[in-house]
TrEMBL record:
This is Transcriptional regulator, BadM/Rrf2 family. GO terms for molecular function: DNA-binding transcription factor activity. One of its GO terms (cellular component) is cytosol. Gene3D superfamilies: Winged helix-like DNA-binding domain superfamily/Winged helix DNA-binding domain (1.10.10.10). Pfam families: Rrf2. SUPFAM superfamilies: Winged helix' DNA-binding domain. Signal peptide: none annotated. PANTHER family: HTH-TYPE TRANSCRIPTIONAL REGULATOR YWGB-RELATED, WINGED HELIX-TURN-HELIX TRANSCRIPTIONAL REGULATOR, RRF2 FAMILY.
């Protein structure tokens, strides 16, 4: 099953952007991520719409942070990606009248919803500046 790595990749880019005064081109970001500039522009567009980055056109242009890392949370970045699925499994529903299937789907659905809510609450508490501090201290967040 293919994993969606856009959130971690975008966080990586934002932290690098904070370390440079020069704008980063889509081509440079694509090389950093082993991706394609068109994909980079599509992903960065959500951040631009949220006011987190700005794009400068022309010679010397590229992407810049529009807000400091202290003003961005993991939740902000996650939402800029149109809130991709956090969990890779779904519910089976070929027999909606089956009591066993309904019970299984009920418990799984409720627990996945609670886990999603809890994770998003944590995302809201973690600022990108916190992650930058972890980098500066050479530590992984537990």
């Amino acid at each position: 099953m293919r994993q969606d790595t856009r959130l971690s990749r975008l966080l990586h880019v934002l932290l690098h952007m904070a370390e440079t005064d020069a704008p980063l081109t889509s081509e440079r970001i694509a090389a950093m991520l082993d991706s394609n500039p068109v994909v980079v522009r599509r992903i960065m567009a959500g951040l631009r719409e949220g006011g987190f980055v700005a794009a400068e056109r022309g010679h010397g242009g590229g992407w810049r942070l529009a807000r400091p890392l202290e003003a961005m949370t993991l939740l902000d970045v996650y939402r800029s990606l149109d809130e991709p699925e956090l969990f890779a499994f779904g519910l089976s529903n070929p027999a909606p009248d089956c009591l066993v299937e309904r019970a299984v789907n009920g418990v799984l659905g409720a627990e996945v919803a609670a886990a999603r809510e809890s994770l998003l609450a944590r995302f809201a508490d973690i600022r990108l500046s916190d992650v930058r501090q972890d980098v500066a201290l050479g530590r992984d967040r537990p």
